[in-house]
């Protein structure tokens, strides 16, 4: 290479780059483990998650009732609660002990307790109450039970106010029941569904995690097949840092360009999730995210010594990264350390940007922070990937020289 001109070196580098791309592309589809992480998991996991949460909200949560009042008003209250879509009263218990037993047996997920003085207090102009006991192991059960009871209590409160006000017109009744008129509008998630809230974040995380696992598995295979356990094979085409990083990166990018279309466009369409993104904006945002994930995975692959190591290192990170993204728990409420720690991972910016673009109709200008951060991560992890492979090239050359010297010394001794 030292005797070649700059033009010849450039031509040779481009040739080697496409040689590495072709070899890595072929390896991806010949290695069953890598193929599972690059194709099967991205296809199956979004479908599994979407099917699990496809109902969006929980309806007809079974509940038990302890009605110590046993009056027409208490029965009206319970009848209206049972008529809601959220609650299904399946047991009327004689006392709290019986209701607790139903709850311990998981027959019901909540208990509605009406005290004995429920109707008497209302008749005497005093405030009364209804107690609600919920199974907090499932927050959606709590939400359904609380929403149903709150709405019924507000409606009955309005009727009681009208009866006692002595109004003569319907307009006076409206003002009595609602002195301040309000309108509840659920922005970006009209159904208040869990799938529309969680699935977009999971889809972006799947891209990063499968790339980590697939590239890590490929790196482990390369080390196992290498005589010196190096990441770079003994091959004259692997004699340059840029050609290795760009060749491998181009191979992974071509595979995941199709995977991203399926995950980010087809899956939301199949399950009728929010998808109000402008196609061009979503495409431009996805490019740096894929590049950042690829170079991040290539950098992290330095820690992989065999095929099994990537499973131990990367699989458990999926749930923590989902929390760190600031979707399931507001990022503003996180400790400062963990908020800045989350900036290490492309998924943090990718998830927040994708949710705003796809579910809220944001443009690139409105997600400029996440977009720029992804490009910065792309540049940073590209440099770290080059440093990783440059070190591997140096180690590989060193091992080859040492092996050559040992062989030469061995031949000399045999001659002696």
Which helices and strands appear, and what pairs or packs with what?
Layout (H helix, E strand, L loop, with lengths): L5 H25 L1 H21 L8 E7 L4 H12 L3 E7 L2 H9 L5 E5 L3 H6 L7 E4 L4 H27 L4 H8 L16 H32 L15 H30 L8 H22 L8 H6 L3 H7 L11 H6 L4 H15 L7 H48 L1
Parallel strand pairs: 1-2, 1-3
Antiparallel strand pairs: 3-4
What does this structure look like?
The chain is mainly α and 416 residues long. 66% of the residues lie in helices and 6% in strands. The chain has 15 helices and four strands. It has a four-stranded mixed beta sheet with strand order 2-1-3-4, sandwiched between helices. Helix 3 links the parallel strand 1 and strand 2. Helix 1 (6-30) packs across helix 9, helix 9 crosses helix 15 (368-415) and helix 10 packs antiparallel against helix 14. The radius of gyration is 31 Å and the shape is elongated. The mean pLDDT is 86.
Helix content: 55-70%
Largest sheet: 4 strands, mixed
- Spatial shape: elongated
End-to-end span in angstroms?
Answer: 36 Å
Number of continuous helical runs = 15
Key terms for this structure?
mainly alpha, 416 residues
Short recap of the structure:
Helices cover 66% and strands 6% of the residues. It is mainly alpha-helical. Helix 3 links the parallel strand 1 and strand 2.
């Amino acid at each position: 290479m030292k005797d070649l001109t700059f033009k010849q070196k450039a031509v040779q580098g481009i040739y080697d780059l496409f040689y590495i791309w072709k070899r890595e592309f072929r390896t991806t589809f010949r290695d069953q483990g890598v193929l599972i992480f690059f194709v099967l998991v991205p296809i199956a996991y979004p479908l599994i998650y979407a099917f699990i949460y496809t109902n969006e909200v929980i309806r007809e949560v079974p509940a038990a009732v302890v009605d110590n009042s046993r009056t027409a008003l208490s029965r009206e209250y319970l009848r209206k609660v049972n008529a809601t879509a959220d609650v299904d009263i399946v047991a009327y218990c004689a006392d709290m002990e019986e209701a607790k037993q139903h709850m311990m047996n998981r027959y019901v997920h909540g208990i509605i307790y009406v005290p004995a003085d429920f109707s008497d207090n209302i008749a005497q102009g005093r405030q009364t109450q209804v107690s609600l006991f919920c199974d907090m192991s499932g927050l959606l059960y709590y939400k359904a039970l609380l929403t149903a009871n709150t709405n019924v209590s507000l409606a009955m409160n309005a009727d009681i106010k009208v009866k006692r006000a002595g109004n003569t017109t319907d307009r006076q009744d409206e003002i009595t029941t609602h002195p301040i008129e309000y309108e509840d509008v659920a922005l970006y998630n009209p159904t208040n569904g869990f799938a529309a809230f969680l699935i977009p974040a999971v889809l972006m995380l799947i891209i990063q995690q499968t790339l980590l696992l697939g590239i890590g598995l490929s790196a482990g295979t390369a080390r196992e097949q290498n005589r010196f356990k190096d990441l770079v094979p003994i091959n004259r085409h692997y004699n340059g840092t840029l050609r290795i990083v760009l060749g491998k990166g181009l191979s992974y990018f071509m595979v995941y360009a199709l995977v991203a279309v399926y995950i980010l466009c087809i899956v939301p369409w199949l399950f009728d999730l929010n998808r109000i993104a402008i196609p061009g904006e979503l495409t431009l945002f996805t490019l740096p995210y894929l590049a950042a994930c690829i170079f991040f995975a290539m950098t992290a692959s330095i820690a992989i010594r065999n095929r099994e190591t990537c499973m131990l290192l990367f699989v458990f990170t999926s749930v923590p990264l989902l929390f760190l993204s600031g979707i399931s728990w507001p990022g503003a409420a996180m400790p400062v350390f963990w908020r800045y720690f989350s900036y290490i991972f492309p998924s943090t910016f990718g998830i927040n940007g994708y949710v705003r673009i796809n579910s809220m109709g944001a443009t690139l200008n409105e997600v400029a922070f996440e977009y720029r951060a992804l490009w910065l991560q792309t540049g940073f992890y590209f440099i770290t990937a080059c440093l990783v492979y440059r070190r591997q090239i140096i180690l590989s050359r060193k091992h080859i020289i040492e092996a050559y010297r040992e062989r030469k010394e061995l031949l000399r001794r045999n001659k002696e």
